[in-house]
Amino acid sequence: MNHLRAAFLRPACRAPWLAPTLPTATSFGQAHRNLHHFARGTWRAPAHSLRREFPSARRTSWRNASTDSGPSSSSSTPPPRGSRPQFKTRQELYAARNRSLLMYTTAVIVFGIGVTYAAVPLYRMFCAATGFAGTPKVGMGKFEADRLVPVEDAKRIKVHFNADTSDALPWSFVPQQKFVSVLPGETSLAFYRAKNNSDKDIIGIATYNVTPDRIAPYFAKVECFCFEEQKLLAGEEVDMPLLFFIDKDVLDDPSCRNLDDIVLSYTFFRARRNAQGHLEPDASDEVVQASQGFAGIEMAPRVEDRKKEDNSTSS
Amino acid sequence: MSFGRPPSISVGFSPAPPDRGSFPLDHYGECKQYMQAYLDCLRKNGSNSTPCRHLNKDYLECRMNRGLMERDDWKNLGLNGVGENSVAKDNPKDRPNAQ
């Protein structure tokens, strides 16, 4: 039995309370008895101090254990306090179990928090990869290459062109073709001609509008000349191209079934700088909204005007 | 556009910007003859766009060569497979393939 005790005293990385699970223990009862002997050998200090400095006592117990000549010290002394060492051992046992339980619980909590944080991007990645739950595949959206293929046997839609200028702009602005007959999904070019009739360089900015409203979600422009400043030198005449298409989803829309003609209307305004330094049409808000087809609509989209008290901003 | 917004403005109301922005102005009229060719073709074909698509390609090619447009694949501009010959009638070769 002494050699078994020595086996318990030697290993440095194993807790005394785990001694029953050591492979060298022949039986649980035997190991339990050995545990008590071991405990007897280490807990030489009085009980109350042990309880106070519990962790350090455990560490010193290891030191004592490794340096002790175990068999000789604990062989002859009877258990100093009958059931007390057992109690302390059980406390240690419970403490150890509690500590490992705490570690496991903390790990589970940390893992749970981590998964919560990671769940959102992970779910997004999963949805983007598989298109699950209707997530749109984001490439270029409606300008993806396979959307720009004409639907061969569909009904042709006539796109009429209209051009306007504001009164403050001395330009002549006309479309170069009256209309173009296109298939859904087919990209097509259209041209406008603008001539600066004044003797000054003028920056113009164009807005556009598509009529009727129900075709507007399907009318897409790949490249045009609207919403950005276009500077024309005095007396200059330029041709302005426009690359557009009608999305083939228009064929699935029941409200667009009898649609044969649509009107694309451009309006050129003189440009001025607003409070944020951006160029905007130099006309009253109602006129600009009317050119975009929002005439008479109260809830029409408007640029947010943060400096209402400052009169120099757009009206 | 943003989740949870009250449904007051639909897609049809908000003007969508063009995908590639704005064409730079052709101040010197470098691609004017291509434009003229396209417009003549349109007039000949009753403003039917399909037979004149190869001229679209010529015009955009002209723009790209002169730095008036960013060079891009034809399939991104929807002109994939459009033939280069100048046949005005509806020719099967003119029709772009469905990729």
TrEMBL record, chain A:
Main location: mitochondrion
Organism field: Trametes coccinea (strain BRFM310)
Bias-annotated ranges (Low complexity): 66-76
Region: Disordered, residue numbers: 54-87
Protein name: Cytochrome oxidase assembly factor
Record lineage: Eukaryota, Fungi, Dikarya, Basidiomycota, Agaricomycotina
One Gene Ontology cellular component: mitochondrial inner membrane
Membrane topology, record value: Single-pass membrane protein
Compartments reported by the entry: Mitochondrion inner membrane
Function as written in the Swiss-Prot or TrEMBL entry: Exerts its effect at some terminal stage of cytochrome c oxidase synthesis, probably by being involved in the insertion of the copper B into subunit I.
Domain of life: Eukaryota
Keywords in alphabetical order: Membrane, Transmembrane, Transmembrane helix
TM annotation in the entry: 101-120
GO terms, molecular function: copper ion binding
UniProtKB/TrEMBL annotation, chain B:
BP-aspect Gene Ontology terms: mitochondrial respiratory chain complex IV assembly
CHCH domain location: 31-65
Composition-biased stretches (Basic and acidic residues): 90-99
Segments crossing the lipid bilayer: none
SUPFAM superfamilies in alphabetical order: Cysteine alpha-hairpin motif
Subcellular location: Cytoplasm
PROSITE patterns in UniProt: CHCH (PS51808)
Region feature Disordered, mapped onto this chain: 75-99
Coiled coil, from the record: none
One term under GO cellular component: mitochondrial intermembrane space
Keywords, alphabetical: Cytoplasm, Disulfide bond
Classification via InterPro entries: CHCH, COX19, Cys_alpha_HP_mot_SF
Pfam family, one: CHCH
Protein family per UniProt: Belongs to the COX19 family.
Role this protein plays: Required for the assembly of mitochondrial cytochrome c oxidase.
Protein name: Cytochrome c oxidase assembly protein COX19
Organism from which the protein derives: Trametes coccinea (strain BRFM310)
